[in-house]
């Protein structure tokens, strides 16, 4: 596959609905092997994670009530939460460091409404989405 063909396939996979990597694997497989190539590429991408998750689900159904496993999963949950907070902080840094306009305030309001006040997410979005659109329109 030349770089031009790769760019075409990548652009097409971004345009199609669905996850980009899945679309790209289907486009890539179909370029080399037609419909069977697309099926093999999709199976190669989705098959191993599906098998791993299925095995983990069977093991959890069998051993999920073991107390040590509960403690292990609690530790994994804490680590995943810490990683999520670190990723969000890293992604939000450019938003807050550029300049203080309406966007960070709306993000803080959304966080406060959903995480702290525990209001329903659709309600918070229904209120803040129009506010966000109007504030962006007014600043441009």
Explain this structure to me?
The longest helix has 44 residues, at 20-63. This protein has helices at residues 3-15, 20-63, 67-98, 102-116, 121-139. With 140 residues, the protein is mainly alpha-helical. The chain folds into three domains: 1-63, no CATH class; 66-92; 99-140.
Shape: flat
Number of strands: 0
Find the structural class using helix and strand composition: mainly alpha
Helix count?
Answer: 5
| Number of structurally distinct domains | 3
Report the β-strand fraction as a percent range: under 5%
Low-confidence stretches: none
- Fraction of residues in helix: over 70%
Order of helices and strands: HHHHH
Rounded average pLDDT: 89
- Distance between the first and last residues' Cα: 43 Å
Largest sheet: none
Radius of gyration: 22 Å
Topology readout:
Elements lengths: L2 H13 L4 H44 L3 H32 L3 H15 L4 H19 L1
Index terms:
140 residues; mainly alpha; 3 domains; flat
